[in-house]
Amino acid sequence: MAWIYLIIAGLFETVWATTLKLSHGFQKLDYTLYTILGMILSFWLLAKAIKSLPLGIAYPVWTGIGALGTIIFGVIFFGDHLTPLTWVFVGLLLISIIGIKMTVQ
């Protein structure tokens, strides 16, 4: 169950990072509230996950999921442009997250 909490926490990290951009520096109240809610849910689920997962495993996976989600969201919805080399490193990040999950007992 801890891994499920961790994955969902990473997804909420993507939510708050994205809504942070949409809040335009906390100038738009609705997106500001979504940002705060996303942060609360993300940290709460991370806290639940690290009850049984090692911190040194959970934290990098959490940030990795958030980073991957934010990159993909930025490309699809904000038109962010990534060079082919950047995509290679994004792929390495994904491989690293999967590798960590597969090697932790």
TrEMBL record:
Topology of the protein relative to the lipid bilayer: Multi-pass membrane protein
Name the record gives this protein: Multidrug efflux SMR transporter
PANTHER family: GUANIDINIUM EXPORTER, SMR FAMILY PROTON-DEPENDENT DRUG EFFLUX TRANSPORTER SUGE
Pfam families hit by this protein: Multi_Drug_Res
Cell compartment(s), UniProt: Cell membrane
Keyword Aminoacyl-tRNA synthetase assigned: no
Keywords, sorted A to Z: Cell membrane, Membrane, Transmembrane, Transmembrane helix, Transport
InterPro entries: EmrE-like, Small_drug/metabolite_transptr, Small_multidrug_res
Organism: Loigolactobacillus zhaoyuanensis
Keyword Cell membrane: yes
TM spans (from-to): 33-50, 57-79, 85-104
Family to which this protein belongs: Belongs to the drug/metabolite transporter (DMT) superfamily. Small multidrug resistance (SMR) (TC 2.A.7.1) family.
Gene3D superfamilies: 1.10.3730.20
Highest taxon listed in the record's lineage: Bacteria
